[in-house]
Write a structure and sequence with these properties.
It is built from 16 helices and 17 strands. It is α/β, with parallel strands linked by helices. Helix 1 packs across helix 2 and helix 5 runs parallel beside helix 6. The longest helix is centred in the middle third of the chain and has 17 residues. The chain is globular.
């Protein structure tokens, strides 16, 4: 039987020191039960209590790592059904499928696509995460050679074959990279489990339905395998969404351990239509895949998926933000325009992008308002003249320009008069309300 919060509290040191970040030991115990805290956060818990409480405090969805080094992918360990309840932590990995039945030119194209499918957005680099290597030839030599080529890309691997001998051959050349072994099924799980245990690699488990899947997971875990990824066998959007939701709810709400693992999904096997495949991948990102295998990542498909993933896996309570300071765009000089805005990442990168498009070198003064947008920061009493004045004095912009003209966002035009009182040496100019109008505004600006 699972321990209650009171049961856990009795095993804690009961110092109420708050060093775990939670005021009392009882509150900490309740957080452990809810999967919202880690036992390691308590610096005084005894080793005996740690042993007893490990199972009770373990996250409802196990954290699984695929690969090694900087590009290793961590999936699972989520604690909520909806990001607004708290946040999602480990974003799903997008994997590009390569098959040993493809010709060399096609394989090289996929590997190049994997390396080149990278974009920068609001200060973050968005890219693919894995290469999924599949054998359709049933030729051990061809599969092993393809795996060797995939290892050279530096991306973590998913090895896809249900043939134990083929899997053994592939692992002989890549086990050190800790690939995901795909997959153990009802007929081969004995051998696949042995490979996973010997190589210390995560193992995917696949079955025709959730009942068979949970039974098979219990057989696999009984053999000592802990790092598991689930494939419920769904091969269309409706069934995939249904199964993923059921798995997440069973793990979080019912604490059902056989389904307490991350999920792998295969949009590449669901639809021949590339647009429907992209839709299926998007559904996987939203609900609740850990690995998503697609046939390719052409830019038209990759960028929307990356942005969707970025938006969902950004902590809603911690807006993306840039550091306070002065940011030059182009090569501004002492006569260049000075623009003021907040440190919300999307605001900064939108404004800087439009300034760059204007081809007018400029200075952008970024004020720290805890990552809020212009209007939100103004409404919260952070982007106001009383705060802007001291910022402009300390940021050092007066050492960079000889004029005293500052452009503020059009949406806060109402603060211009008070701001001139705070900065009597400056002329406050009201800029456009929309970032898209910045280029035309700057072309008519003069010092």
């Amino acid at each position: 039987m699972a321990l209650t919060g009171l049961d856990i509290y009795k095993k804690l040191p009961q110092k109420n020191c708050g060093e775990c970040g939670i005021p009392t030991c009882l509150a900490f115990a309740m957080k452990l039960v809810a999967g919202q805290a880690q036992l390691d956060a308590c610096p005084y818990v005894s080793e005996e209590a740690k042993t007893e409480l490990t199972e009770a405090s373990a996250p409802p969805i196990r954290l699984v790592t695929i690969g090694v080094g900087d590009k290793a992918l961590k999936i699972g360990e989520e604690a909520v059904l909806f990001r607004h309840e708290k946040t999602f932590y480990h974003q799903p990995g997008l994997a590009v499928l390569v098959d040993d039945g493809m010709d060399k030119a096609k394989i090289d194209e996929k590997f190049a696509q994997l390396k080149n499918s990278q974009f920068e957005r609001v200060g973050q680099f968005l890219r693919a995460d894995l290469v999924a290597v599949k054998s359709s030839s049933n030729d051990s030599t061809k599969f092993t050679e393809l795996v060797k080529g995939a290892v050279e890309t530096g991306f973590p691997l998913v090895l896809i074959t249900d043939n134990p001998e083929m899997m053994k051959a592939a692992l002989s050349v890549c086990a050190q990279t800790k690939p995901l072994i795909y997959a153990a099924n009802e007929s081969n799980f004995e051998q696949m489990t042995a490979f996973a245990k010997e190589s210390n690699c995560p193992l995917a488990v696949v079955a025709k339905d959730l009942s068979m899947l949970s039974d098979l997971v219990e057989k696999v875990t009984a053999k000592g395998i802990k790092d598991i990824v689930l494939d419920p066998g769904s091969r269309n959007i409706r069934d995939s969404l249904r199964d993923a939701t059921f798995i997440r709810r069973a793990a979080l709400k019912k604490k059902y351990k056989p389904l307490g693992y991350p999920i792998i999904t295969f949009p590449c096997e669901m639809y021949d239509d590339p647009y429907m495949e992209a839709v299926a991948a998007g559904v996987g990102i939203m609900k609740y895949a850990g690995v998503i295998v697609v046939s390719d990542l052409e830019p038209w498909k990759a960028f929307p998926l990356y942005v969707l993933r970025q938006n969902i896996y950004t902590d809603p309570q911690k807006p993306m933000q840039v550091d306070e300071g002065i940011y030059p765009v182009g090569e501004p000089d002492e006569n260049s325009p000075v623009l003021l805005t907040t440190n919300f990442s999307l605001t900064y990168f939108t404004v800087s992008g439009e300034v760059e498009a204007s081809k007018i070198p400029s200075w952008i003064c970024i004020m720290d308002v805890e990552g809020l947008s212009v209007l939100t920061a103004w409404a919260a009493g952070k982007f106001i003249p009383e705060n802007i004045g001291p910022f402009m004095k300390r940021c050092g912009i007066t050492d960079k320009v000889k004029h005293r003209k500052m452009v503020i966002p059009g949406y806060v035009a109402q603060i211009s008069g008070e701001l001139e009182e705070e900065l009597p040496d400056w002329e406050i100019q009201v800029g456009p309300r929309e970032a898209g109008d910045i280029p035309s505004y700057l072309k008519n600006w003069s010092a």
